[in-house]
Amino acid sequence: MADGFSHDDYIDAVAGEIDKMAWIADGADPAAPVPSCPGWTMAKLITHTGTVHRWVTEIVATRATDPVSPRSLDLGLPEKESDYAGWIAEGAPDLMDALRAAGPDTQVWTWGPGGTSGWWARRMLHETTVHRADAELASGGTPRVDAAVAADGIDEFLANLPSARAPREHLAELPAGQSLHLHATDADAGSGGGEWLIRFTGTGIEVERGHAKATAAVRGPVAPLLLFAYGRIPADDERLEVLGDESLPATWQRKAAL
Questions:
Q1: 15 with 120, same domain?
Q2: What are the beta bridge partners of residue 200?
Q3: Domain check: are 34 and 125 in the same one?
Q4: Rounded (10°) angle between helices 222-229 and 147-160
Q5: Do 179 and 119 fall within a single domain?
Q6: Is 100 exposed, middle or buried (0-12, 13-18, 19+ CB in 10 A)?
Q7: Which of 143, 159, 177 is the last residue of a domain?
Q8: Taking residues 55-68, what's their average pLDDT?
Q9: Do 30 and 43 form a contact (C-beta atoms < 8 A)?
Q10: Is 105 inside any structural domain?
Q11: Does one domain contain both 38 and 134?
């Protein structure tokens, strides 16, 4: 459990993010492209997120200790893409109920380090927050994320990244001996001071909190910094500043894409 967030805090925040995503989807063209997820439409984004919610519901509700295939689930996906907004909202109560009933410490399968239902509550907050941001970006909006949630999201992202299926084979390709410093300029960006140092080891990454000299630094408010870390906005976004090797942030995004 992260500092400052209880299990119930995560669950309540997930519910809020699902509501926001459903609201955005309800007013969007299902065929609209999602620039931050190349090749995806709004319908694909909603389908993916709602499927993940139902998959996690199954894992937590059944106390699964082995992987569960999403293909084994009856998703109840509507025939009409225009109904997808209601579908993603309908999945929220079951997810909330499963997470609350399990509490934070029930042993279940997780794809990252953790192995508890509490890991999934945290994961669902940040999964849904980032995909809600994708939906907003696709609709021409500017995503806003609470600073404490965004700081926790960066912590969670970096902790799980070496276990994530897509990037884990590519982290060793980051230039060994170099490093990236993320510096949130918000005063209340988390108990660790809003700074992260990511060292590239040649086999993966090492992460520590705090201020340190790095090959490159990306500075800015923690919400856009979260979206940068996830590859949703580039380092040359007007809200961010790059110091040092200006090519390294783009290299990071290519190798750490999630």
A1: yes
A2: 205
A3: yes
A4: 20
A5: no
A6: middle
A7: 143
A8: 98
A9: yes
A10: yes
A11: yes
Q: What is the pLDDT of residues 170-198, one digit of tens each?
A: 999 999 999 999 999 986 655 556 999 99
Spatial separation of the C-alpha atoms in residues 166 and 154, rounded to whole Å: 17
Check residue 165 and give its pLDDT: 87
Residues 6+ apart with CB under 8 A from 62: 68
Q: What is the token pair recorded at 218?
A: 């990306």
- Please report whether residue 149 resides in a domain: no
Structure token pair of residue 201: 């080891």
- Tell me the helices (H) and strands (E) count for the chain, helix number first: 8, 5
Whether residue 154 has pLDDT greater than 80: yes
CA distances in angstroms from 121 to 6, 112, 124, 142, listed in the order given: 10, 13, 5, 25
Range of the domain at 247: 167-255
Sign (positive/negative) of CA torsion 241, 194, 169, 117? negative
Report yes or no on whether pTM surpasses 0.85. yes
Describe the crossing of helices 117-138 and 92-102 by its angle, rounded to 10 degrees. 150
pLDDT of residue 187: 60
Query: DSSP of 122-146, one letter per residue?
Result: HHHHHHHHHHHHHHHHHTT------
Q: Do strands 216-220 and 241-244 pair parallel, antiparallel, or not at all (unpaired)?
A: antiparallel
Is 152 within the bounds of a domain? no
Based on the structure, what is the number of domains in the chain? Answer: 2
Q: Tell me how long the chain is.
A: 258
- Residue 12 domain flag: yes
Task: Report in angstroms the alpha-carbon separations of 71 from 58, 162, 163, 213.
Answer: 12, 25, 22, 46
